[in-house]
Write a structure and sequence with these properties.
The complex is a heterodimer. By secondary structure, chain A is mostly helical. Chain A is built from 4 helices and no strands. The radius of gyration of chain A is 69 Å and the shape is rod-shaped. Classes of the chains: A mainly alpha, B mainly alpha. At the A-B interface, α1, α2 and α3 of A face β1, β2, α1, α2 and α3 of B.
Chain lengths: ~190, ~250
């Protein structure tokens, strides 16, 4: 009721207010003009509550949901990327271990083959050397026999030559046994 | 024509009725309030319509507003403060949009009226008071009794704390109102110098360059003030809400 009295006393201001549209600024400082307070509060309440309802019921859940959805999408994409990377790493590790195994196997096969060939070639060389050694011994034996024979011939030739030389020089046929002994002595001495 | 107060005039468009002897009229102020609601609704709903992972401009703006307010609230109140997120967001967007619209020439600044800013500040004040009492019971009054104060000056401190608590809605509302009012008056005064000097012929035109440059610079400053005051209003709201949730500190 007190406010009603205030409104009545503010009638002048209200009257000035009604003149405003035609006469422009009608005296007094508008922000302190009490006659406009009720209208402003009334419409502010409606506008503010309407905005609050729109914001809290529709706008914020929607925008918040958007931000949430983006965060989820990014997290999911990052997770997918990580999973794919892990899988790729796994593949790479498998590939590398298989490669290492294959390489080891290849080396083993190579080493085995080399050893086998080595043994084979060693055996072949051995048999060849044995055969050659046998042939060499045989040849040496032949050579020794031949030399023996040759040496025998040399003695006979030397004795004959010595007997001939003695006969030419002395005119007397040398005794066979003495010449023979002399040649033997000379051969030995030489 | 150069009355710097004229821009704050409230013009009645039509009368709706009377409540308790007070005339309830739909005014230019009311129209701008609903324009603010419409703009925010358009921004938030239009911005979230595309629902794309890579946001467009509108969506970026909507998400930016959302994350700006939620980060502000979360950093000063913590995770449990998020129950007040709709209120804080509504306050911030309402004040910001009202301030920004007001910079456009020939518009009306809703927040340049003390009754509007007082109503918003009282909404925060009552929310803090009622929720604080509901959540903490009588422990809420520990807000007025800081820790580690010697007993002989405690009564004085409690009186000061109570006065400072009760004066919060005043400082909260007057800060926003006075900033908007003063900025708009200054802009109008400098702008009227331009028009005034311009009517003196060629010499006046040359002289009008300075206030025109001033007006341009002030408009940029007002843009900053419009955002800053909305932010200050919001951060103070967050700090007050923090008291309702954690009165012990």
């Amino acid at each position: 009721m007190a406010s009603q009295g205030k409104a009545a006393s503010g009638g002048n201001a209200g009257a000035a207010h009604t003149e405003v549209p035609s006469g422009g600024h009608g005296g007094g400082f508008p922000p302190f003009d009490k006659s406009t307070f009720a209208s402003q509060l009334f419409w502010l309440a409606i506008a503010f509550v309407a905005l609050y309802v729109i914001v809290s019921r529709i706008a914020l859940p929607r925008v918040g949901g958007l931000i949430e959805a983006r965060r989820d999408t990014i997290a999911k994409d990052l997770g997918d990327a990580q999973r794919l990377k892990d899988a790729a790493d796994q593949e790479l590790a498998t590939y590398e271990s298989e490669l290492a195994a294959a390489r080891a196997k290849a080396q083993a096969i190579g080493a085995e083959m080399r050893d086998k060939l080595q043994a084979q070639s060693d055996a072949e060389r051995k048999s060849l050397e044995d055969r050659l050694a046998g042939k060499l011994a045989e040849a040496e034996k032949t050579i020794a026999a031949t030399r023996q024979a040759a040496m025998g011939n040399v003695r006979t030739i030397a004795a004959d030559a010595a007997a001939a030389i003695v006969q030419r020089l002395t005119g007397v046929a040398a005794e066979g046994g003495a010449v023979q002994a002399a040649v033997d002595a000379a051969i030995k001495g030489a | 024509m150069a009355d710097p107060i004229h821009q704050f005039q409230i013009n009645k468009i039509f009368t709706v009725g009377h409540i308790g002897g007070h005339e309830i009229a739909f005014t230019n102020s009311s129209a701008f309030m609903f324009a603010i609601v419409a703009i925010i609704t358009l921004l938030m709903l239009g911005g979230s319509a595309a629902r794309s992972v890579i946001p467009g401009r509108m969506q970026s703006l909507a998400e930016l507003s959302y994350e700006f307010v939620s980060d502000t609230l979360r950093s000063s109140v913590g995770e449990e403060g998020m129950k007040f997120f709709p209120l804080v967001f509504t306050l911030f967007m309402f004040v910001l949009t009202a301030n920004l619209i007001g910079i456009i020439p020939y518009t009306f600044t809703v927040t340049s009226h003390i009754i509007v800013t007082l109503a918003l500040a009282l909404t925060v004040f009552l929310t803090v008071l009622l929720y604080g009492l509901y959540k903490n019971g009588l422990k809420f009054f520990k807000l007025f009794v800081p820790h580690g104060i010697p007993i002989y000056i405690l009564p004085l401190i409690v009186v000061i704390e109570v006065i400072s608590f009760l004066s919060r809605p005043v400082s909260h509302s007057v800060r926003l109102f006075a900033n908007m009012l003063a900025g708009h008056i200054t802009l109008k005064v400098f702008a009227s110098f331009v028009a005034g000097l311009g009517s003196f012929g060629a010499l006046g035109w040359a002289g009008a360059v300075l206030p025109l440059a001033m007006t341009t610079a002030l408009t940029a400053l007002e843009l900053l003030v419009a955002f800053l005051q909305a932010y200050v209003f919001t951060i103070l709201t967050c700090i007050y809400l923090n008291d309702a949730l954690h009165p012990g500190h």
